[in-house]
Amino acid sequence: MPQATRAKGRRAEREAKVAELGRALRAAHSAVLTDYRGLTVADLTELRRQLRKDQVELRVVKNTLARRATEALGLTGLHPLLEGPTAIAFGLGDPLAPSRILSQAARALPQLQIKGGYLEGKVVSREEVFALAALPSREVLLARLVGTLQAPLRRLAVVLQGNLRGLVVALGQVREKREQGQGQG
Length: 185
Prior knowledge:
By secondary structure, the protein is α+β, with helices and mostly antiparallel strands. It has 2 domains: about 5-135, Alpha-Beta Plaits, CATH 3.30.70.1730; about 135-185. It contains 6 helices and 5 strands. The chain has helices at about 5-25, 40-55, 65-75, 95-110, 125-135, 140-185; strands at about 30-35, 55-60, 85-90, 115-120, 120-125. It has a 5-stranded antiparallel beta sheet, sandwiched between helices. α1 crosses α3 and α4 (about 95-110) crosses α5 (about 125-135). The protein is rod-shaped.
């Protein structure tokens, strides 16, 4: 095979990888970039399994291809994070799932280093990834919101119920007095 043909084939392959990485970045609500140096194959396999449960995909990427994909999407703020071995966790469901799972994994596996990431198109630092991981899940936040909205209604119902109860007691006493008055006459 001539050298020019092989070079064109490799170039087309790289362009396809950049396009696929761009599609993955566009589809993801969030992404967390990590340095996985020092992790064993078993560690990475277990981490991928945990991530998959929450609709998070972990991909090991080449930094040059990732730079091209992020540049095409206007995410050049991620370029400083694309140094050394890089794996990107793409959050396809809950936007906080990659931050939460990788933060827990980083505590258990000190070799796993979180570099930073992005959330809904905004680049976030390593510290912000850990802060996002500390937030309650969407379901918990919604439950708290519903509870907060219900509290005034519940108090109003208790107050109205108390007034209604007082009225019923007063009417009962009036009825008893009338019955006693009729019984004597």
